[in-house]
Amino acid sequence: MKLSHLRAATLATLLVVSLGVVAHAAAPPAEIPPDAFPSTYQPLPAQTTLIQHATIYTGTGTRIDDGAVLLRDGKIAAIGTQLDTPAGAIVIDAKGKYVTPGLIDVHSHLGVYPSPAVAITGNGNEMTNPNTSQVMAEHSVWPQDPGFNTARAGGVTTLEILPGSGNLIGGRGVVLKNVPATTVQAMKFPDAPYGLKMACGENPMRVYGARHQFPSTLMGDVAGYRQAFADAQAYDHEWQAWETKVKAKGRADAGAPPKRDLGKETLAAVLDGKILVQMHCYRADEMAAMLDVAQEFGFKITAFHHAVEAYKIPRLLAQTDTCAAVWADWWGFKMEAWDGIRANLAMVDAGGACALIHSDDENGIQRLNQEVTKARAAGLRAGLDISKEHAVMWMTLNPAKVLGLADRIGSLEPGKDADVVLWSSDPFSVYARTEKVFLDGAVVYDRADPARQSKSDFMLGSFVAPPAADAAGEGAR
Amino acid sequence: MKYLVMLLALLCAACSPADRAGGQADTASSTVAADSTRATYAITGGTVYTLGAAGKIEHGTVLVKDGRIAAVGADVAIPADAERIDATGKMVTPGIFDPESQFGIVEVGAVKETRDAATTDSRFSAAFDVADAINPRSVLIPVNRIAGVTRAMVSPINGAGHIIAGRGAIIDLGTTEGFIHRDPAAMFAVLGESGAKQAGGSRAAALLALREALQDARDYADNASAYASNRRRSYALTRLDLEALRPVLDGKEPLVVQVNRASDIEAALRLAHDFKLKLIVSGGAEAWMVAAQLANAHVPVLLNPLEDLPAHFETLGSTLENAARLQKAGVLIAFATGDTHNARNVTQAAGNAVANGLPWLDALKALMLNPARIYGMDQDLGTLEPGKLADVVVWSADPLELSSFADQVFIAGRKMPMVSRQTMLRDRYMQAMRDQQALPPGYSVPSAQ
Lengths: 477, 449
Fold this sequence. Notes:
The complex is a heterodimer. Chain A is of the alpha/beta class. Chain A is about 25% helix and about 20% strand.
C-alpha cells in the first residue's frame, strides 16, 4: 500500500491497521479460498510473428519509424528497427501501416449490460442496498455479448468489467482478456488484481433518495463510504484476534472462526491494497472529499472514473498518485457533468497526473483511438504540446497501470504479453482501421480473414434468408 | 474564367411571412435582407467544397454579403469594404445541418426543469410544437456552433402514451433574434419497439393508432365546417391535433418516423403509400436491408453510422456499412447521432462512415447538404452557391478528421465568436495551471470574444 499521500497524523494508526492486514495476508485463514473463481484462460494457438517496416507507437512514449516487433511464445520477444527473422516465423510487411500495443479499457459494462439491452439482461447494478461490496461483476458477465467482438475489432485486448454506479459501493470488477469464450473464467486475466467499483455523487443518491432511503444527499454518500470502511476495519480486527488465538493455542482450541462476511472481506482486501478502488466521480470537490476518506481509512483510490472536472485539480491528483480515467467529451447529461470540457484529459496529463481514456460504452470502446485523438487535439488547441506517441499511452500503458498490470501489458517491451494491434494507417486518423489484433501472440481478429472474426452465438441464425431473398445477412454483425 | 454572380435582390422563393395556422413558413429569409448589421466578408485562398455544380475550387474565394453568398469562384472581385478572412491551406464548406436535435429544448439532461422536448399531457400530440419552447441562448448552441454546426432541426420526443411526438422547427444557431427558420418543419412519430410501448404493447396497435389519426385528420379536413357545427362523429384526436396533421396529409410537411427493424420500415412505407405521405425514416438500423424499396419510394433516412450492435431486437441487423449501402442504393441519407450536447461529433460519425465505404464527398453532403434537401430547404441552404444563406465554415483541415477544427464559422453571414462556455472553462483553468500565484480561478473571466 502506498502511504506517500497520507497525513502524518493518521500515519501511526494506519500502520497498525495496515500491518495487521499484511499479517493476515501472509497467512490467509484456510477457511477463505484465495480465489473461488479461478481463471481458466488459455491463449489461442499462436505462431512466431515478425511485423516489420511499421511505424510503431510503443506505448512507452516513443515512436519507432520503420520498426519491427517480434512476437514469440505469446510475448514480445524483441522490438527495434532491424530484427532477424526466426526460422518458420510469419513475416508481415507493414510498410505504411502502424502498430500499437493492444488497447485497454478500464471501464466497460460489456457482458453485464450486454446487447441486446432487454430488462432481464441488464445485470450491472445490484440496487437493493447502497453497499453491495459482496457482489462480483463476473457473475453477471454474459460471455456471448456481441460487444466483446466489436470491441476486439476495435483493438481492445484487455478490459475491466465493472458493476454500475447505482450504489456507493457496487461490488468487484473483473479484468478480462478479450477472447471469445463460453465462460467468464475462460476470459479472466490470470492473477490480475480485482477492482472495487465505488460511485460518488448523483447516481446513488438519486436511486436511494427516490425511495426515501439512505443516502439521499452528498453528505449521506460520504457517510455511507466511511461507515462501510469502519465496519470493514472492525471485521478485520475480528479475524486478526482469531488468528492470534490460533497462533497461541492452536487451531483446535481457538474456537470457531468469525463468520465470513463477503462484503467486508472485499473491503478488508481494499484496506490491504490487494483490491484496487475504481471510483466513479465527476466533480472536483467530490474527488477531493474521497481522497480524504481514503486517507482516513488508509486505502488508496487507484483511479477516478469519468472525472469530468479532473482538470480543476491536476495537482491534487498528481500529489496523491491518483489516475483520472475520462471520456473525451461527454458532458451535460446531468448536473455533475455540466462542466465537462474536451481538454480535460490533456490538462490532467499536463498537470503531472496519470490520465487515460475510458469508454463506459459499448460503442465508444470500439474507437478508443478516436477518443484519444479528440482529447489530444483539444490539448493542442489549449496550447499544450502533446506528441502522438505520448497520447498513445492514454489508451495503453496508463490504463494498464490502473489495472495493476503495467508490468505485463500496455507497452511493446520484451517480456510483456504480445498484445498488439496492426493499423491500416495512423490510428490518429478517423479513417484508420484495425487490420489484425494479436492477444498473447495469437491473431484474435483479422479484418481480411472471416475465420478470425468471432461471432457471438447470439448472432447465429439472425438472418437466415429464404432461397429467393437477397443476401440479407451479409455483413451484419 | 470569372465566376461571379451577384445576389439578386430577394432571390428567395420562400419569403412569405410566418403563418403558423396555415402550415410551414420560412422566417429567416425575410429577415436577412433587412439586416444591415451584417458585414461583407471575403474568405480567400481556401479549398472550397461548394457541394454544388461548381464542385471543388482550389484557392477559391467565397464572398459573403448581406447574409448570403454573393459569389464563389477562383477569381472573384473583392469589394473594398470586405473584411478578408485568409483561408489559405484550409478547407471551406457549408455549415453542418443537424437533422434531428434538441437544441434549446434540453439543457441539462437529468434536470427536468430544463427539458421541454416531450409532453405526457394526453391532450396534445400532433399539435405539440417545440418552437414555442426553444431557448436560443442555450449553452449547447455555442459549444456546437464553434465546431461547425450552423442549422438544426429541433425535434420533439414522444412523451409517454404518444405515438405522435409533435412538430419540429428548423433553427439558425447563429442568432437569438428570428432564430426560427421554419416552423412547423416536420411532424415526428414513433413506430417499432418505441411505438409498441406507447400503444399498449404491440407494433400493430401503434400502426393502428397512427392510421386512425391520419384517417380522422383526413375526415376532419374534408368536413371541418360540419365538425364545427357538431354534425360529425367524434375523433380520437383533438381539433388542434387534426389541424396540425393537415399539411402532413397534403404532403407539404414530412412525417419523420423513428423505426429500425426492416419489417417496421416496410410497414411505415406501406402507411406512407396509403396516405401519400412524405416519409422520412429516422434510425433505420436495418434500412440497408430494404434499401431498394426506400430508394424507389424516395424516402430518405436519418441514421447514426456508428450503430453496429444488436442493441435491441429491432436492430439486430446494425452494421457500420449502413450508410455506404444506402447511399449506393440511391437513398438520400443524413446523420443523426441522437446526442445534442455533442452534436459536433457528427463529423466523427461521418468519418467512420467513410472508413466503412461511404465516399468522402457523399459524407460531406450527408452532413451539410442532404438535411437541407430532405427538409426541402436546399433553395436556401446546403451548398456554397450564390444566393444561398451564408452558412460557411473554414476548417483547419479535413472536417472529418478528429484533429481538425473549425477555424471560423459564419451563419447567415454573421461571423461567429469562436467561444463557448467550454472554451472559457478551459481557459480559466489553463491560466490557473500556468500561473500558480494567481488569484483563485473564480476571479478570472476569459474573454467572451
